[in-house]
Amino acid sequence: MSVSYDEIKDALRKASDPYTGIEFANCLDGVSVEKERVVIQLEFGYPAEGKREETIASVRAAVAAVCGGMEVEVELGMNVLPSVPGKVPRVEGVKNVIAVASGKGGVGKSTVAVNLALALSKEGASVGLLDGDIYGPSMGMMLGVPEAARPRVIDENSMEPITVHGMQCMSLAFVMSGNMPAVWRGPMASGAFQQLIEQTAWQAVDYLVVDLPPGTGDIQLTLAQKAPVSGAIIVTTPQDIALLDAVKGIEMFRTVEIPVIGLVENMSVHICTNCGHREHLFGEGGGAEVTRTYETELLAELPLSGDIRALSDSGTPPVVSDPDGEVAQIFRETARRIAADLHKRVIEHKVVIPIVQIHDPS
């Protein structure tokens, strides 16, 4: 029995990628037939390593009728493209910039940023992580980077990011001494942040996750001016005051014409470790209500867990220390949804993000 490329493509129109809705036929990159064996090559525009086996099973099921009793081998490739139009000046070595922000401190924004970056890496992407919290950089501790670690200086205008857990990372903590605080006014902090972005020699990064400081100030505006941000993730808790500040964050990104991909609600529910009882200590349904009002997505609801804090403080976040655990799986699912959303923007050509010119009236 033999089968043609067109027959395979027609069969793949019956199945689609659950994250993007794109038919597998539109991902077809090649077909080769050798006697009783057919090799189907698909190329996706976002990482989804955690769903590899499910995808292969779906493809095999779709082509089973036209392939008869032939052996079917499925090869999955990935090619992440920039989701912001090419006319926008890019960060050298980076395809997509994802901002992780919060309206207020204490909601777990840095924890989400770190684990989200790790999840994207585990899904198969090349990932960079930039600690944009100039006044309170914490990435080094959360990733277990030794205090004495310093980036290698390439020349007077560039330095290599530190590689940890398979990611490229940069933080002000890597270039300052000990516990020395950044006692700077806004313009100085913005200048330091800009240097971290522009003078880090990122290498072929699919997604640069930027952990922003809380609020809607200088650092956020600097990022909007100096980098083509693909989208923003807002982190909040179910508390009314946190949700109020989350709304301000959404409004800020809309003001500078950066798409808000969705909301991550941290500390959403407490699960008793003894009896399994679930209790919404800080309120319930607030994140979902905000996403309905602002027509964005509730990407994840993370549990209130002492393990998340302990593992992050020890430099071994849940995504790497407990990869099969519930929290790690939530982050990986969230990473796939975010990456798929950016890929859909590439396909639909709906993203138009200009360089925002901010003028200080003073």
How does this model look, in words?
By secondary structure, the chain is an alpha/beta fold. The chain has 2 domains: 5-78, Fe-S cluster assembly (FSCA) (GMP Synthetase, Chain A, domain 3, 2-Layer Sandwich); 94-348, Rossmann fold (3-Layer(aba) Sandwich). Helices cover 35% and strands 24% of the residues. The chain is built from 11 helices and 14 strands. It has helices spanning 5-12, 52-67, 109-122, 139-143, 186-198, 218-226, 240-255, 286-294, 306-313, 318-321, 326-348, and strands spanning 28-34, 37-44, 71-78, 94-101, 127-131, 153-155, 158-159, 162-164, 167-171, 205-211, 229-236, 260-271, 278-279, 297-304. Strands 4, 5, 8, 9, 10, 11, 12, 13 and 14 form a 9-stranded mixed beta sheet that branches. Strands 1-2-3 form a 3-stranded mixed beta sheet, with helices on one face. The longest helix has 23 residues, at 326-348. The termini are far apart. 44% of the residues are buried.
Biggest sheet: strands, sense, closure?
Answer: 9 strands, mixed
The unreliable regions are 350-362
State the helicity in percent bands.
25-40%
Shape: globular
Q: Please indicate the count of domains.
A: 2
The CATH H-level homologous superfamily of the largest domain: P-loop containing nucleotide triphosphate hydrolases
CATH class (first level) name of the largest domain:
Alpha Beta
| Cα Rg | 22 Å
> The CATH topology of the largest domain is what?
Rossmann fold
Number of strands: 14
Query: How much β-strand is present in the residues?
Result: 15-25%
Tell me which CATH architecture of the largest domain applies here: 3-Layer(aba) Sandwich
Q: Compute the number of helices.
A: 11
